[in-house]
Amino acid sequence: MKSSNVIRSFALVLAIAAGQFSLQVAHAHAALQQSTPAANAVVASPGQIDLVFNETLIPRASRLKLLMKHGSSTMPIENFTTEIVNNGKTLRAKLPGPLAPGVYTVEYRAVGGDNHPMTGSFSFTVR
Q1: pLDDT for 99-118, tens place per residue?
Q2: pTM
Q3: Which residues have a Cβ under 8 Å from the Cβ of 38 and sit 6 or more positions away?
Q4: Which CATH number, 1.20.1530.20, 3.40.50.300, 2.60.40.1220, 1.10.10.10, labels domain 31-126?
Q5: Among candidate residues 33, 29, 48, the one with its CA nearest the CA of residue 94
Q6: Domain residue spans in the chain?
Q7: Which DSSP helix (H) or strand (E) runs through 94?
């Protein structure tokens, strides 16, 4: 009886430890916390686009694309520069000039310390 209690206690401790480990692994990926412009925002033409993540990014592996909706198709916006700022947690695109009015989509790929790429997208409108 005493050894079965020890085994149950040991099993419980292992289960709790495994649960804690899996929670840490689940949160280890770079996740978008905030963007400027925000998703679905209607804004004047921004000078830059900032994507703020929950962890430091790997610069060469993290990037974004900017697309403008044009009728039923999309056109890539090019000629902007990107950099990692804010202690490595912000992916910034510096735009070369004003954006024309319309709907824009930002597609991003962010890679943090675990080398696992996280991708996503959101849209905003320039008035």
Answers
A1: 999 999 999 999 999 999 99
A2: 0.77
A3: 124
A4: 2.60.40.1220
A5: 48
A6: 1-28, 31-126
A7: strand 90-94
